[in-house]
Amino acid sequence: MKKSIWAIVFILFLGLLPSSIVNAKTTTPSGNTSSSANRGAINLYNEKSDSIKVFSPEGRSFAVTKEDIDLMAKVVYAESNAEPYEGKVAVASVILNRLRDKSFPKSINDVVKQKYAFSCVVDGNINVTANKDCYNAVFDALDGKDPTTNALYFYNPKTARSSWMINIKKTNVKPIGNHTFFVVN
């Protein structure tokens, strides 16, 4: 059931993205593959719903909209464009991990725009055009892939200027590319 929901979310949002970003193939239950034959049906489905429930931690349901996907992809691009693909998925996972955590806001928009949460928001670098890899990383994170094992924070030790980020006691530390992902007790 859980995998089916993720598959629906993935297909749903592929239908919303411009073809220049995503060139997806869909497979019918009979096994036929199509590059665009099902696009119309997917778009019709999207017209009926602005969002879809993607997960329900601790009894609370969360919905993700196309705008949330776009915002997450922009953060992934701004924070990790030069990082390996695993690092991009990790950044998207941090956003979702914060959404699940009781000490963070309860919408993707509020998590991303929380004061000092992401340097790309603070310094204005969020106004970017995300690429296909960034969108795919967001979809992988929404599909449950989390290379950070539930990290809530990340930073680049070579460029970090925040004394809090540098000096805080970190657990569940996982370096990926130039970033270090972690949890604070």
TrEMBL record:
<dbReference type="Pfam" id="PF07486">
    <property type="entry name" value="Hydrolase_2"/>
</dbReference>
<feature type="domain" description="Cell wall hydrolase SleB">
    <location>
        <begin position="83"/>
        <end position="182"/>
    </location>
</feature>
<keyword id="KW-0378">Hydrolase</keyword>
<protein>
    <submittedName>
        <fullName>Cell wall hydrolase SleB</fullName>
    </submittedName>
</protein>
<feature type="signal peptide">
    <location>
        <begin position="1"/>
        <end position="24"/>
    </location>
</feature>
<dbReference type="InterPro" id="IPR011105">
    <property type="entry name" value="Cell_wall_hydrolase_SleB"/>
</dbReference>
<dbReference type="InterPro" id="IPR042047">
    <property type="entry name" value="SleB_dom1"/>
</dbReference>
<dbReference type="GO" id="GO:0016787">
    <property type="term" value="F:hydrolase activity"/>
</dbReference>
<keyword id="KW-0732">Signal</keyword>
